[in-house]
């Protein structure tokens, strides 16, 4: 008798093959997910793996690219909370192609799965996102964040009087947070090469098979793109100086 499927995904792909050019010099000798948030003693990928394990994930496939050996060496030495497999692109496949290539190594191809970009620092309940995904019978669900605008803004009335100055307010727009829930069949919808956000996602959106899950109020989320993001993440998490 076959085992019953898990109520929530227990497998995930982490995309860790980016160039990290905006994070230099931190990424001169390591891929972006191997950059440490100041004060934590752990690279970004280590925090991601712990979060995924805390959310019930038991198996992760990491898609590697530039300086893959640095990441693989760390994985070999680290005490990991789940099983990890790495795959390396021998030639550039694009984001969609890389995702498809990595998903081929998931241990349970008949079950749904998560995916996350390797430069995302976040904490929110993945099981709630998976339930949202299942309730909408979607092929793919994107986590949606509302990042803070990096500038102060000015609030005015209809007559042009300045009412207030607001420092770094939340954006009025939702953005793709780089965390996903996918159906088992989603892998077959991905391009072998190219960017799924320009091909697969727009097609699914037109067919109403793409869902968006707004991160819960108060959930922490930050994309680590620049040195300033590293410093801000350290301050926000209270790790500076620890």
Automatic annotation (TrEMBL):
InterPro entries named in the record: Mannose-1P_guanyltransferase, NTP_transferase_dom, Nucleotide-diphossugar_trans
Record keyword Zinc-finger present: no
SUPFAM superfamilies: Nucleotide-diphospho-sugar transferases (SSF53448)
Pfam entry (one): NTP_transferase
Recorded coiled-coil stretches: none
Keywords: Transferase
Gene Ontology MF annotations: transferase activity
Domain spans labelled Nucleotidyl transferase: 12-237
Signal peptide span: none
Keyword Nucleotide-binding: no
Protein name, per record: Guanyltransferase
